[in-house]
Amino acid sequence: MSDIAKILQNLGIESQNYGAFNGEWFGSGETLESISPIDGKVIATVVQATTEEYEKVYNEAEKAFKIWRMIPGPKRGDIVRQIGDALREHKDDLGALVTLEMGKILAEGKGEVQEMIDIADFAVGLSRQMYGSTMHSERPLHRMYEQWHPLGVIGIISAFNFPVAVWSWNSMLAAVCGDSMIWKPSPKTPLTAIACQKIAAKVFVANDLPPAVMSLVIGDTETVGERMIADKRLPLISATGSTRMGKRVGEVVGGRLGRTILELGGNNALIVSNNADVNIALPAILFGAVGTAGQRCTSTRRVFIHADIYEQLKEKLCKAYAQVAIGNPLDENTLMGPLIDNLAVDGMQKAIEKAKASGGNVLCGGEILNEDFPCGNYVKPCIIEVDRQYDIVKDETFAPIVYLLKYDDLGQVISEHNDVPQGLSSAIFTTNVLESETFLSHMGSDCGIANINIGTSGAEIGGAFGGEKETGGGREAGSDSWKAYMRRQTNTINWSKELPLAQGIKFGD
After folding, report:
1. Which strand (E) or helix (H) includes residue 99?
2. CA angle, 133 as apex, 130 and 137 as ends, to 5°?
């Protein structure tokens, strides 16, 4: 048996799998092929859900919610702890499957599973800390406080680039909050979703709890996606993907006055001051732009370099790019694997041509590596020098392209930094406290994440993750992001023998 066959067997992935889970596995829709971007070969197939089967999933998720919401929060936290332990046991296999199905290098695949473990640990602590507030009433012998209740059955829509971590950021928090959930994963990475679902389901079954607390439905946009976002029974839709997709989700869910958590596009910039330590800025730019083959929402896409050090850093970057090991992401020596598919490669080539037509100068990279990799998903990471932010620079190209721009003045560069539709992640490299504090001030970065001497790519789960403008405005993971998965209730208790009315109104004598 091959290593890949063993990995699939360990995770319960068969040659053909069902795409709907509500405590049982089923599906009768069209067959979906999971194709590895590594070699263009089919890993396994999935029989997708129909609209009617979506209803079956919802019905069981609703029944599960009515049981789950009444389990004490710390007990829910213990179930999540057990899921985290199960993920630890399957970390190597699940990380390898992430790499096989999505194409990120093995270290990143395993790292993504570690993020799932970390957010499970965070959620366990959270299960005892979902605090409300007490307030002083203006009326005598009255008491006021607020509490948080589970929201209901929520919908989770995830993207291909983080096929398991994004689900966990939502599902672990939603679970300790008392919600049940329906997960629609990307059709490009269905097998990792099935593997996660099987791991979680075993924990619920072992504890005599309904496994439909965490449900799954794999289906196309029309059959399942549109049905989910229009479903008035789902009070919250958390969706990760493109800005175009997010606008559709926001429009439909907002039209029914539902809630959304939208994690959308990013066009992240990194500023390198003439007061920066170039030796730490260089690897931050390299990994930020090349890591996950530029397919992170937090990938570094624009680098503003002070004129005093521009030529020096440009030369160092080009030398570093020439040393990037491109190849099979299952090989531990590989630094950059393939793009997800040929459509992504085409999008990268079109962006390069648009940048050149606008006046950009390609310093290195951008070639498709067809000879060594016949599937056509492998490219060389690209650096493009531009004299200003052309329209293509203000767009997000989900590929390893980074644009270099020269600047002289901090106020000017912050203005240019913010002059894009997206607002997710940002960074400045400087040893000057005035520059760093300006970047973090009200007049500084307009992004949801702003870093000093740390790159744009990635984030710790302890902080709230998300951005502004066309990035969507939602927040996931740490801090008080849990509140999005609950409903707030203000309570007033009258323990007097009178009924004082508002505004001093009196009836009768």
Report:
1. helix 91-102
2. 160
The β-bridge relationship of strands 25-26 and 20-21 is antiparallel
Residues pairing with 494 in the sheet: 142
Exposure string of 278-305, with b = 16+ CB inside 10 Å and e = fewer, is eeebbebbbbbbbbbbbbbbbbbbbbbb
Over the stretch 299-330, which tens digit does the pLDDT of each residue have?
Answer: 999 999 999 999 999 999 999 999 999 999 99
Residue with tokens 């919802």: 58
Residue 223: helix, strand or coil by DSSP? Answer: helix
Tens-place pLDDT, residues 32-71: 999 999 999 999 999 999 999 999 999 999 999 999 999 9
Report the distance separating Cα 104 and Cα 160, nearest Å.
Answer: 11
Q: How confident is the model at residue 253 (pLDDT cuts 50, 70, 90)?
A: very high
What is the Cα gyration radius of the chain? 25
pLDDT recorded at residue 213:
98
**Helix (H/G/I), strand (E/B), else coil: 270:** strand
Q: Look up residue 340 and give its amino acid.
A: I
How does DSSP classify residue 504? G
**Beta strands of 218-355 (E only): which ranges?**
236-240, 259-263, 268-272, 300-306
The number of CA neighbours under 13 Å toward the Cβ of 432 is 12
Strand 31-35 to strand 468-469: parallel, antiparallel, or no bridges (unpaired)? unpaired
Of 25-29, 414-418, 498-502, the range with the lowest mean pLDDT is 498-502
> Could you confirm whether 222 is annotated as catalytic?
no
Q: How many helices (H) and strands (E) does the chain have?
A: 15, 24
Q: Is 297 among the residues known to form the active site? A: yes
Instruction: Name the residue among 431, 325, 441, 319 with its Cα closest to residue 383.
Output: 319
Q: Which of 104, 228, 219, 122 is nearest to 169 (CA)?
A: 122
Catalytic residue among 177, 196, 297, 382: 297
What angle (nearest 5°) sits at the alpha carbon of residue 481, between those of residues 126 and 185? 100
pTM metric for this prediction:
0.96
Choosing from 60, 263, 396, 435, which is the catalytic residue?
A: 263
Residues written for the chain: 509
Query: How far apart (Å, rounded) are the C-alpha atoms in residues 64 and 146?
Result: 26
